Amino acid sequence: MSIAKFMQLSAVTELKLHFQQGRYNCYTADILFRMYDDEHNRLYLLYLKSVLSEVQQTIKAFEGEKSDSTKLLNILVYIITSLCKKIVIPTAKINFMDVLKKMSVLSANETLKSNKNPSDIASLAEHLGFKTELIDKIVNQ
């Protein structure tokens, strides 16, 4: 059952009634009844619904055969940022996010530009752990 269907009041009521009937004969039914009967769980699932809908949209974007990798990168950065703000500590600094954002300089649109900013490439190489001598060679090319 999907979260969207579960969140419908009628589905929750039906499941609650179903497990209420068997709760005295079955431990699992009793646990499930108490879970559906608890308003805290319902609030948690409402919160989870928004998170899961974003994840489902991201999955759909990656399922396309002719997807632009730069757009996919932007979608991935967005979903990771969004999840981190909702699930992890909102003020936490995430290093890999900076790397993902900087990797967009390698996209087709950016590499074909005539006025590239060498410091963007140098910054990405630095984040990826390249040594200074090699970074200088990369930038000069």
UniProtKB/TrEMBL annotation:
The domain of life for this entry's organism is: Eukaryota
Give the protein name, as stated in the record.
Uncharacterized protein
